[in-house]
Specification:
Radius of gyration: 53 Å
Strand content: 15-25%
Number of helices: 12
CATH class of the largest domain: Alpha Beta
Number of domains: 3
CATH architecture of the largest domain: 2-Layer Sandwich
Order of helices and strands: HHEEHEHEEHHHEHEEHEEHHHEE
CATH superfamily of the largest domain: Histidine kinase-like ATPase, C-terminal domain
Low-confidence stretches: 88-93, 95-102, 396-403
Distance between the termini: 93 Å
Largest sheet: 5 strands, antiparallel
Structural class: alpha+beta
CATH topology of the largest domain: Heat Shock Protein 90
Mean pLDDT: 81
Amino acid sequence: MQQDRANTEQLSVELAPLYASGQMNALQQRLEVASGELGGRMMVLDLSGKVQADSFSELNGSRVELPEVLSILVSGKTIDYGVHKTTTGEQTNSVLRFLRPYDQNSEWVGYATSALTTSGITIGVLIFASPIQEMMERLFTLQDQMVFYFLIAAAAALIIALVFSRIITRPIASLTRSIQRMGRGDLSVRVPVRGSGELRKLSETFNTMSEKLEMLDKSRNQFVSNASHELKTPLATMKILLESIIYQPEMDEGLRTEFLTDVNEEINRLNLIISDLLALVSMDSKTLRLNRTTFNFSQLVSDSVERLKPMATKRKQEIKVQLGDRCEMYADFAKLTQVVYNIMDNALKYTPEGGTVRVRLIRSGRDAILTVSDTGPGIPKEDQALIFDRFYRVDKARSRDTGGTGLGLSIVHQMVLMHGGNVSVDSEEGQGSTFTVELPIHQA
């Protein structure tokens, strides 16, 4: 196509003087030679579109109305090119006559037109018509192949997209189903961890969350069960005692007083349980705040020892105290008092008569370290990880006999954590137990 345009433009420069000077014989001869060389039909048209010279000498005087001719005569172009199909239509006969010497059956013709000019003025149009059937067939074949390849590529891309979509969406769908099951209350659900990257991380995070929720749910159920049991026990005891008083109006005065005293002790026990539960609820809901003041931690430990000495004396126990530093603390005095008292009280309750409880306070760097050791029966290894759980008791029967609720150490743990500290236990069966509380010393 580009070559046809170039040849036509070059030939128009050569033929323009012949046409302008009226040398029609020379013009005709040159058209016939060029037609044979280029393998097409050449014609010269005047400004009205009539054929003035035809390389085949057949269309002289005929009018040619092609867009490529009009673009020269009307639009002012100097060169143009177009492709036309020679099937049924307005120009079928003339076009077929253009091609008859070369390709009787060709359906496609290429038209290159160029202006014949002299002194910059257009005086006519040169047309070069060439059959391009073979080229068009190759183009159509290429087009069909491209469409075929496109359809194959599109089908392959669709299949690959479906496969990858299935691979990608499968874990998401599994996760969605698991979330729906969890929403219906099934906290035991887990999703399979597959693949890598973000989806794997998402699955692992979901499973971790699910495990924690399940653990929290079990802990909550256990907590409710234990709390109900702890509250039910004193209530049942009081009911029996009160019914005995009601249905025995002639009861001995001393026995009645003893029963009422037992009822009063059970009420105190209920108050203690409820107070501990409320304290834990406040800590869980983050509504409990620290009221920090500056105080002497060693004096707090000494005061707690003095409060517990009557209990120790009654049980013929000895409390040995070693205070290595004053440990000026900036903390919540009331809450640390409860921490120290609960740990010492727990040690005395589990130490047999005639035993010894050792209390030691030292300063290590920016921390105050309190250790409370007893000579009790010790705690089995399997129970040490659970010792700070709510209502947990190593020896449930003995704990109730000594008045414990199973909440003291849990409260200690929560209050120490609120201060940014740590509490731990070291124990062996038959060798006693040692509780260690580490608290940061924050100066005001």
